[in-house]
Amino acid sequence: ADGTPNPLTGDPITGPFYLPNTTWDSTFGKLASAYEECRAECCGIYLCLEPSVLRVFGHEVNAAEDSPNICPDICPDIPYINWLLMARAGLTALEFFTPSTSSWRQAHMHARYVILRVMLEAGGGLV
Predict the structure, then answer these.
(1) Which GO terms describe its cellular component (predicted)?
(2) pLDDT digits (tens, 9 = 90+) for 16-49
């Protein structure tokens, strides 16, 4: 550990860390690429919920409310559409699964399918 603080708690990050002479790919093997794509996709669908992130792209928070209900005409649709497209991508990802070998031909699609499965498992009407 190099003393890097956990951004949520401020406490030093305490591993587990990679063992000597290991890498992301050697640790996660065939899943490494799909795992990384899953992380990237989830960052995107999470960050679209943050008004400060939407401001970067020119969408302003309703100044009267300054609440998570961002600009009344378009912004509420941005997270909805982003999450809806991810759920759809999870369905279309099945085209990239090969049942005879139980393998995925594309890491992006494997990740999107996993995200859809998590959405379905979350329940509560999310999907």
Answers:
(1) cytoplasm
(2) 778 889 999 999 999 999 999 999 999 999 988 8
